[in-house]
């Protein structure tokens, strides 16, 4: 009897040991799953850094990022100007305010320099032997005039051209920007949005896709829905960006003089436009990195 009890106890120990081994294997599998998840997150973070680096390789990407920084600092300066009316700033904040004002001015000039010689793009389109319509020709001419005006203003800031010529170039650059923004809004609402799929998705097909369609059809359906959401999202954000640009430039072009409204409106409009442009450009580089 004692031998059997000891044998049973031995079996019990062995079974417990087996259970322990099983538990150990489950823990290892769980840790592997966590490791895979962490590796996936690390890969995604690494890809995000690589996409941002690739975005910063282009002048357009640097311009958008610097625009976000510029109008963030400009908004900060505006808030400081409100705060100083209530309470005097400390010496550190006064010195910081001066540095930020210099930084905003420097960032503005840097962005102008990054976009120098952009008239080459519309000029190459105009000199192309490919036939173009009268409307396209007119748009290229408008783009060329705006780019030349921007370059004149930038060269004036650098001291290459006279200050008076720079002021004239700046005024014309704003007017052409105002015109191209209106054209962009018109094209968005008369050409781009009407060409998109309707807003109402076929809910019945989406809801019953898992039961009625094959796996390949389900994947295609989901890809179509993803593209549908992406196209409509791009159109909405493009419209918001154009509205922000219109609010910003119309204040200068129309000669409005509302100090209490003008500065905060331009700060917010510039910040919104900058972040939307930077986000859209980042998403384009992200999709290109994923091979979509």
UniProtKB/TrEMBL annotation:
Lineage of source species: Eukaryota, Fungi, Dikarya, Basidiomycota, Agaricomycotina
A cellular component annotation (GO) from this entry: peroxisomal membrane
InterPro entries in the cross-refs: PEX11
Species in which this protein is naturally found: Cryptococcus amylolentus CBS 6039
UniProt GO BP: peroxisome fission
Locations listed in the record: Peroxisome membrane
Signal peptide: none
Hydrolase found in the keyword field: no
The protein, known as: Peroxisomal membrane protein 11C
Record's keyword terms, sorted: Membrane, Peroxisome, Peroxisome biogenesis
